[in-house]
From TrEMBL:
Domain of life: Eukaryota
Name of the gene this protein is made from: MRPS26
Cellular location(s): Mitochondrion
Protein name as annotated: Small ribosomal subunit protein mS26
Family statement: Belongs to the mitochondrion-specific ribosomal protein mS26 family.
Organism: Anabas testudineus (Climbing perch)
Record keywords: Coiled coil, Mitochondrion, Ribonucleoprotein, Ribosomal protein, Transit peptide
InterPro entries, per the entry: Ribosomal_mS26
Coiled-coil features, chain-numbered ranges: 95-159
GO CC terms: mitochondrial small ribosomal subunit
Lineage: Eukaryota, Metazoa, Chordata, Craniata, Vertebrata
């Protein structure tokens, strides 16, 4: 661009160069649309600047050359982008990507298998503990039932012993006369009154 446009590039560089800080802004008064034309410009005819034919031909050739170079660069860049895209999809880069994906898949499968094995061991340990706990509860329940059965048997044995002791006092045909004589010899008075504590407070006299 600097070589194509010659002196214009210098002017552009000067315009784009950093400027120093403006200490005071110059203000120029402007004419309104109703103001008449200046006396120094009355009768002046604007004539376009002359064009050098040789310079015009040179500029046209350089501009054509510039367009050709830019078109070639754009095509080169586009071809490079398409080539890279093709290599990524079907070339060595695609093979490398597929290889990486395969390795990643194998690593993930190995991790998955290890995790499944670990979870299986944890599950088996949990099931084993649950079975042991169930067996322990069954054993405790059986022991509890056995103890209750033994206590029930002991209670029944006590009742049987008490019943055997009570049988000795039963009235039978063999001791009927003896019990009658004993009752006549030792009369009992059941006509009495008791208080709330069960003590006899009043009793009639046998006649």
């Amino acid at each position: 661009m600097l070589q194509l446009f010659g002196g214009r590039s210098v002017q552009a560089a000067r315009l784009l160069a950093p400027r120093s800080a403006v200490l005071m802004q110059a203000v120029r008064g402007r004419k309104s649309r109703t103001d008449p034309i200046a006396k120094s410009k009355e009768g002046r005819v604007k004539v376009p600047p002359p064009v050098d034919p040789v310079e015009m031909v040179v500029l046209k050739e350089r501009f054509t050359e510039y367009q050709t170079i830019m078109r070639a660069l754009r095509l080169e860049f586009k071809e490079e982008v398409l080539r890279r895209k093709y290599e990524e999809e079907t070339g060595s880069l695609a093979e490398e990507r597929l290889r990486q994906e395969a390795e990643e898949h194998r690593a993930l499968m190995a991790f998955n298998n290890e995790e499944n094995l670990r979870m299986l061991q944890v599950r088996m340990m949990r099931i084993k503990k649950e079975n042991e706990e169930a067996e322990r509860r069954k054993l405790e329940a059986a022991i509890q039932r056995e103890q209750e059965q033994q206590e029930f048997i002991k209670e029944k044995e006590k009742e049987i012993l008490l019943l055997q002791e009570d049988v000795k006092n039963f009235i039978t045909l063999e001791n009927l006369d003896e019990r009658i004589e004993e009752a006549l010899d030792n009369p009992k008075n059941y006509n009495f009154a008791v208080d709330k504590e069960g003590r006899i407070v009043k009793q009639t006299v046998l006649q």
